[in-house]
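I keep forgetting this: the sequence line spells out the residues, with the fold written below as integer tokens. I include a record here:
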Amino acid sequence: MSYHDVQMDEMRCCGTNEIHALNESGITADDIALSVMMQREFEEFSCAHLILSEVTNHRDWPMHGADLERLVKKHELGTVLASASKLNINSGNHVRAYIWTPHYGRLQQWAQESEEWAEAMKERREQRRGWDHDIFGRGYDRYDRRF
């Protein structure tokens, strides 16, 4: 598992997104934080707040919210608020919700220290290699063929 496996959806409010499908045991808090920064950097998918939830009454289920809260506090990557654990009458599980307000400047500094970030930047540079723009913003390749 890696940051590629973290899924995010926009909600009705464009300022808040949901992080979901985190029941995979291989996903870590680092993967979640790196995925948020990668999507902001490369896909221009960004928001003010992120919401995720976790089941608290199954010891064998991953506790991504608590892990993310510890990571965010340790590296000062924003603010995390946790709800009380309450019964979800739809599933019978006890669920805790987390709201993360990322500090994108610090998150970017943290992400830039990872190997995944360096690899993604290298791929992006390779995709753009050979392309330039004139002073009017018109693109051309290095062989000066206009398009």
